[in-house]
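Sorry to interrupt, but I need a hand with the structure work. It will help me judge whether the discrete encoding reads sensibly. Write everything out right here, beneath this request:
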Amino acid sequence: MQEENLEAVMGLIIHGGNAKSNAMEAIQEAKNGEFTVADEKIKEAEKSLVEAHHSQTGLLTKEAQGEQLNLNLLTVHSQDHLMTSIAFTDLAKEIIDVYRKISA
């Protein structure tokens, strides 16, 4: 795998992981009634997802321009990691809303 592509794949993994971690922390903060902190953690998760999307877009652009990208387990893992992080962040937002309604 070319070094530039490896950096993009690792960006997906790193930023996706950061998003998932922040979303989990947001749930814990909401569980403790700290909704301001929970909202901040969700914003951090969303920023990480944007960064991951930038990495993904770079890879997609290269492929669309005709560059042959080698698919390997690391590439598949990075995409899986990103999609899981997106779903987890969306679910975290819903859980935080439930905690917010329960505490009101």
Q: What stands out?
A: The chain is about 85% helix and 0% strand. The helical segments are 3-31, 35-64, 73-103. The CA atoms of residues 61 and 67 lie 9 Å apart.
